[in-house]
Amino acid sequence: MRQPDEVRFKVVVNHEEQYSVWWSDRPNPPGWQDEGTDGTRQECLDHIDRVWKDMRPRSVRTAREAIQGVKA
Amino acid sequence: MTVEVSPAAQRVATTLAADDEVLPGLSFRRAEVSRQLDVTEADLTALAREGGTTPAAVLAAAVQALVAGDRGSTSATTVVVGVIVVDAEHGAALRAVRCPVEPGLPLRRMVERAATALPAARPASDGEVRIAVVPLGALGGGLGSRDVTDLGHEIVWCDATLEITAHDGRLVVRCEHDEDRYAAVSIATHLRRLDDILADLVAGTGELPGAGAPVETDAEPVSAGASVEPATAAERLVATIWADILQLDRVGADDNFFALGGHSLLAAKVIARVTAERGVALTVDQLFDHPVLSDFAALVDAGEPAVTLPALTARDGEDPVVSFGQERLWYLDRWRQGSALYNVPVLVRLTGRVEEQRLRAATQAVVDAHAVLRTRLETVNGRPVARLADTVEIDWTVEDARAAGEPAGRRLVRAGVCRPFDLATAPLLRAGLVRVADREWLFWVSIHHAACDGWSLDILLAEIFAGYPTGQPVDRPATGLSYADYAAWQRSVLTPEVIADGVAWWRERLAGAPTLLALPADRRRPAVASHAGRTLRHRLPASTVSALRATAKGRSVTVFDLLVSAYLLLVRRWSGRTDVVVATPAAGRPLPELDNLVGFFVNTVVLRADLSGAPTFAELVARVRGVSAAAQAHQQIPFESLVDALDPERDQGRAPLAQVAFGMNQHARGRWESGGVVAELDSVDTGTAKFDLTLSVVDTGGPDMGVEVEYATDLFDASTVDRFAAQWLVLLDRLLADPDVAVTSVSALPAQEERLLLGWAGQARAYPADQPVDALVARWAGLSPGAVAVVDGDVSVSYGSLVARADALAVRLVGLGVGRGSLVGLSCRRSVDLVVGMLGVLRAGGAYLPLDPDYPVQRLEFMLADTDVRVVVGHRDLLDQLPLTGREAVDITDVAPRPTDQPALPAPGTLGEDAASLIYTSGSTGTPKGAVVPHRGIIRLVCDTDYVQPEELRVVGQVSNASFDPLLFEVWGPLLNGGRVVVVPTDVALSPPRFVELLRREQVTAVAIVTALFNSTVNEIPDAFSTLRQVYVGGERINLGSVGAAVAAGGAQINNIYGPTEVTSISTCNPLPAVPASTGAIGSAITNTTTYVVDERGCLVGVGVPGELLLGGPGVAWGYWNRPGLTADRFVPDGFSDVPGARLYRTGDVVSWRSDGSLEFVGRVDHQVKVRGFRVELGEVESVLVAHPAVASGVVVAWRPGGGPVRLVGYVEPVAEASVTAAQLRDFMTERLPEYMVPASFVVMGSLPLNPNGKIDRAALPEPDPDRPSASGDHVAPRDAVEREVAAVWADILGIERVGVGDNFFALGGHSLQAVQVAFRIRTTFGVDLELRRILEAPYVEDLAKAINEALGEQGNLLAEALGDVESMSDEDVRALLANS
């Protein structure tokens, strides 16, 4: 059972595709987008555990892919 | 031109309020505080030019505004400050600049006045000036502060001198002040205010606080709507009662009680009147629920018949009876004799021609009229007895302070009201007049609380000023009743059964309430409170007051409910508790005929509020209102009975049941005109505090209200309480602005404080963020290939060959498939090879994973499996011990240096954001987690930073083990700055003489070491590090003794550093030029690191309030390897940064801001335990434990043996050649901590277990012996005659049979009044007059016996012997002995 006044969170993601959680009732800090999931903090973290597969920052990942692309 | 001085401007302000009362005069204790101002030299010059004056005049005006603002004067005042002026004729001279100011005066106008006054000012005469300004350039270049002090003998008499100098266009103000008068923190606050004033001046805004702003009048019509005439008999009755009580001409049937200004105290009066006149049982709650007159009248009609209270009758000729309240005050007086704590002081300012004798006669008439003022309380057989005197002459003094001035006059008033009363001597009232100007007088009255309360003061003052014109007694309603009649009535109503029922109700209400509510304090709570206090005064502005009244009216709540709710919410934020208990006074006049009596009727009740969740303010107020209405209904139970039943331990360090209080003092009026004299209520205090913090709102019916904050100076500095009050005012305004939003989203931080906190967060600076670490090392190899890079014993490697070897390794790794983004294990002993391995992996584009050979194999196996590294580089023998099946193992000694004629290795293309290292943190519990540290984090750690300079990194000792984050500093610090790494083998580091020999031989400039190693080295060789430039100590709380020894030895700068691996090692640094006051002083953020302290909602907390430390900036790691959920939990969006997408790391460490902008480490979020209902921060206990001079290091752990109650255990390692016993530790801690925080047992160990990184390993501590709890639980029979006698006295008074020497008086059911009887019996038995507090401090038989023996001294031994003899005699022998004597 969910506590009625348990604090609600949402899953947010930044330009580096790094995930985190933020309070549902507050505007996101600059550079963070809603991922589309909300719930208790733990529910959000569990969701992130499932969906955040590549933990490299996006800038590192794409630069590397670009280099590999040149090599190939 | 002369400056016009209005007649009223005769008050003079010359200085800032002192933190400590000291006699004026020369003090040799001077201290200084500096501040760089926001306002620049150019701003100041421009401002002066604009005003057609000099910078000196601008500064003088700013300082005058500071002094005027600090005095909070509400009327015109002349401010005097001294200014050093240099001219050809006199040289440098101190001139007294006098300017009249009035509240609300624009700051720019003050500059005009100062500009006029300064050139005309004469040199100051002795003592005329108490604050002196040394303006910019006054003394020319080159003259230092010493010359200022030598300037004139008068300047050394100043409380403070403010010297302003310019450096590179920035202004610095240096304040040298009298240390006996001011705490450094308050001076820092003053300088901040000065800065704000100057900023306002530059902006052309700002004015003096006070009444200058046009007062927004609430203009509430006193006789309200009254549109509907009361119709029924009940309506007419209620209308009459309301009109009486609310002092209105008429009241209509549709009027709302609260809209007419009703509040809970008045509601109680209404209920009492209705009950008395109609005999119906109604409660205050019912009036709250039916505030409209016609609805309430309907209830009166339908009401149940009341249980009739016995009638209050005059008891002529009988001895006065002592009320419960008087008994309580008598008891408290026994406890703490000769204190002004229960003096009720009153100050009234009189303007006009005051006839001293008439005022005296009017005051005497009041004493003649009210018997309670002529009643004394004697102690007979350990009980209070009231005795009435028919006539007593009042104690009346008249003093003239016209020459000495108003402040001196106020000091006389203070002295008058502070004089303690002897309860056994009537009258319990004293009064006096102090003349401060020809037509200005201060009339003070001091009455012991046993004879009056706040309500009584209204009656007394009204009667005094009614009697003043004639000097004759005034006509009073002839009820024939006296306070003693009430006391007798109260005793008949409050039977033991009624009290027991009431106590049972309160017990239920307070079940499980926290025993102590601790607001963050500036000082530790002493074991025995001194009750010394101060009172700060503020105003609730008219705008807030009208919002308050409108909200109260609109929502049928009282102004009190709104105010106390905002107070509770702020207490909740400062204390971090959601279950808050606050004390508040209850009027205690249950019958209407008591309304005109003087005496002590008020009782203390406690409100326990649930502040959990995120209610709106309206919801919160509704919760609080329910609690306060219920408390009102049970207010008659004497507070002392509650204390005895619910909090009998009598911890003398805190007030029982509640440590914070809130009150609303409603005065019928604050101004009288009488016999040609205008009398205005002023404020005065007795320098005492009954609670830790009491916020009182004073309502005299005007458009604004007074706010008085009384606080215990044992605990708080003025600046802290000032912040609390400022936050309360801001919070109240914001809550009232929108009562329907969640309170959690309403900040209490004034904009100014928030700006301050964000300013303290940290500074950014350009650094090579986009280059990989290895490229920066290679750059040095290109610049100076022959320079030494690494030294390990006899081996020394140049930059050229270091890079050549690393490149060869990189080629080999690339051949094995390693590239950008690959992870490579590194298993090397600390040596040149380790550095080659680190650099080689980076040269190949990979990130290295240190596999420390000192770690348990199991842990290394976990790390290999968790990361699944394919390639591991290291020393052959170490590699052989690792489970490397399926992985490539590279022997680092087997890689030949890459010939220098080979073409340069192609850059792998790594960037600042790429991973450089994966470091597993030595988490004390749970699964280890690996933090992925990027290149930019390392570069920001050692390049272009503020805590260390490149030349200080010339030679850095490498002491840390390979898996610990200090390695980042030790290796990359020198290598990115052209310096050298000197490997310090572990056996050398652990041998102070060898360690020192190496440091000196290699001319090491800096080391970063764990606290334990620093302590053990310095304790053996105090000047071990004196040849270094910088020593960084971190990992644990610093040991003040060791730091002191190192600082005294001189040479190196000692720094306390703090920082988690997750933010790439060091995050804050505190250079320690002297021993800091606290072991947790971790300083402030290093460059390119940000620090925020937040509450559980992620909102900034104010100065002094503990919160979790969040860290940001480029040092923030990627996160935890393969742990997305955990990463998302700990690495959170940065809501304070402008950088899009920035993240903060939640450290789990609790810290607080000090007022100087540095951080104080408090403890771990998860190291909080509850001991017997008290919340204890283990870190706080530890900080005291390690402060013991014989303790080298220590740790405190909470054990819960067998699932029983939590017990604290202290583990200590003594300093070399010292020994310490558990008893010594307990004594030391008992002196410094409340009893519940003192560990129950101590374990002294030769050395504390350390984990491989050198930090104390809590998990490896031995369990304390459960069979030997240190608190005595067993019965131990009295062992000597004195103990036997004490035990017998207890047994008799407590009505029990067996008392042991280890028994606690209160645990046996004793209560405070019985303790008085014990004192009485001890006096009669031993002839020893023990103060009651001695008994309360020593509630054990053995301690009390010890105290008696001490008091008896030599004589005691004889007496004890004699008692022993008597005991061994037969009854007949004793009789014979007595007959002969």
UniProtKB/TrEMBL annotation, chain A:
- According to the entry, every stretch annotated as the MbtH-like domain falls at 1-50
One of the protein's GO biological processes = siderophore biosynthetic process
Q: Which InterPro entries match?
A: MbtH-like_dom (IPR005153), MbtH-like_sf (IPR038020), MLP_fam (IPR037407)
Q: Which GO terms describe its cellular component?
A: cytosol
Pfam family for this entry, one:
MbtH
Show the PANTHER family listed in the entry.
Answer: ENTEROBACTIN BIOSYNTHESIS PROTEIN YBDZ (PTHR38444:SF1)
| Entry protein name | MbtH protein
* Species of origin: Micromonospora phaseoli
From TrEMBL, chain B:
- SUPFAM superfamilies noted in UniProt: Acetyl-CoA synthetase-like, ACP-like, CoA-dependent acyltransferases
Q: Which SMART domains match?
A: PKS_PP
What's one GO-annotated cellular component?
cytoplasm
- Provide any one GO MF term from the record: catalytic activity
One Pfam assignment: AMP-binding_C
The cofactors required by this protein are:
pantetheine 4'-phosphate
Regions of biased composition (Basic and acidic residues) lie at 1255-1268
Q: Give the matching InterPro entries.
A: AA_adenyl_dom (IPR010071), AB_hydrolase_fold (IPR029058), ACP-like_sf (IPR036736), AMP-bd_C (IPR025110), AMP-bd_C_sf (IPR045851), AMP-binding_CS (IPR020845), AMP-dep_synth/lig_dom (IPR000873), CAT-like_dom_sf (IPR023213)
- Domain of life per record: Bacteria
Give the matching Gene3D superfamilies.
Answer: 3.30.300.30, 3.40.50.980, ACP-like, alpha/beta hydrolase, Chloramphenicol acetyltransferase-like domain, Luciferase, Domain 3, Nonribosomal peptide synthetase, condensation domain
Assigned keywords, A-Z: Phosphopantetheine, Phosphoprotein
Residues annotated as region Disordered?
1255-1278
Protein name per Swiss-Prot or TrEMBL:
Amino acid adenylation domain-containing protein
Name the source organism.
Micromonospora phaseoli
